[in-house]
Design a protein that fits this description.
Layout lengths: L1 H28 L12 H10 L6 H13 L14 H36 L4 H15 L2 H15 L15 H27 L2 H8 L4 H38 L5 H10 L3 H29 L12
Helix pairs in contact: 1-3, 1-11, 4-5, 4-7, 4-9, 5-7, 6-7, 6-9, 7-9, 9-10, 9-11, 10-11
Length: 309
């Protein structure tokens, strides 16, 4: 296991280098400049470019960027008063991580329960209702749910604040908006996998041996049905991260998504590259965790290159 994890970390580092290189190249290809302004003279623009090393040849800029990245230095922001990008990310990541974590946990739990109930109550009104909710959740984007929640729950009923950031009540609507897609996807996958598992011979054998229904369902059926669910959790978490970019704008949450969108509109290259690398690191770490969880859920899956432990 340790050797496998070390190997995956090596691949993670190589992947991050490739992502950093492509991101840097794309920033160079973007039209315009962060210092394009009618208020600035040509001399002032040249001074600013020199201050941020933008007048150096591109290979030199790339070497400086990669060298700084290896030391955790992503440069300074062009638009946020010259503050270090790493400080801005640390300052803003809290709200984003909070609503993302709440959305994933809540969505996963509710989605699993819906999928299990739908499978156990197959072809009943409960099954149809659960799948209707799942289809609805997949069909309607999270930002549409966000707008509906703001209007009906926040404006009409005045149960929750419609925007900004504060205590737990400020988390509920944005987290639920993100969780709807998670609930829908997991419910559909869990129902399908549960129906497949419930038809397997070993489930029939376990029932014939006199095991309780609860034991058959939770110890044998659910555990084996969970493996494909773990597979989709990785991309789903990344979807939550990218989806939060819009949700944070809608609810005026001072998170990293709001900051990232602003940095794109203002062509704040260091901020864009730093945030992109952060999302990449989170995605790769999630994928690594998913791979490790395979072995935890089903010991028959060997992570050591096919060798039995």
């Amino acid at each position: 296991m340790a050797r496998y994890i070390a190997g995956r970390i090596g691949y993670l580092i190589i992947t991050l280098f490739i992502i950093a290189s492509f991101t840097f190249l794309l920033m160079q290809l973007l039209p315009g400049s962060p210092f394009n302004s009618e208020k600035l003279t040509a001399d002032q623009i040249q001074i600013l470019k020199h201050e941020y090393n933008l007048d150096d040849p591109i290979p030199i800029q790339f070497i400086h960027y990669i060298g700084g990245m290896l030391h955790g230095d992503f440069g300074v922001s062009f638009t946020y008063d010259g503050r270090p990008v790493s400080d801005l990310i640390v300052h803003r990541i809290g709200p984003s991580a909070t609503i993302g974590f709440e959305a994933v946990v809540f969505g996963t739990i509710v989605g699993l329960l819906l999928g299990i109930i739908a499978a156990l109550k197959r072809n009943t009104y409960i099954d149809y209702l659960a799948m209707f909710i799942a289809v609805l959740g997949i069909s309607i984007p999270s930002f549409v749910f966000a707008g509906l929640l703001q209007y009906y729950i926040g404006v009409k009923l005045e149960w929750l604040p419609i925007a900004f950031w504060g205590g737990f009540k400020f988390h509920i609507m944005p987290a639920f908006s993100l969780a709807v897609g998670v609930i829908a996807s997991i419910a559909r996958f869990m129902r399908t996998e549960m129906l497949d598992v419930l038809g397997q011979d070993y489930i029939v054998t376990a029932t014939a041996k006199g095991l309780s229904k609860a034991s058959v369902i939770f110890k044998h059926s659910v555990r084996n049905a969970m493996i494909p669910i773990v597979t989709i959790l990785g991309p789903m978490v990344v979807g939550i991260m990218t989806g939060s970019l819009v949700i944070e704008q809608i609810f005026a949450i001072p998170g990293i998504g709001d900051q990232f969108v602003n940095s794109i509109t203002k062509r704040d290259y260091p901020m864009i590259m730093g945030t992109t690398l952060l999302f990449s690191i989170l995605f790769l770490v999630v994928i690594l965790i998913v791979d490790i969880l395979y072995g935890v859920i089903d010991p028959r899956i060997r992570l050591g290159g096919g060798r039995k432990s």
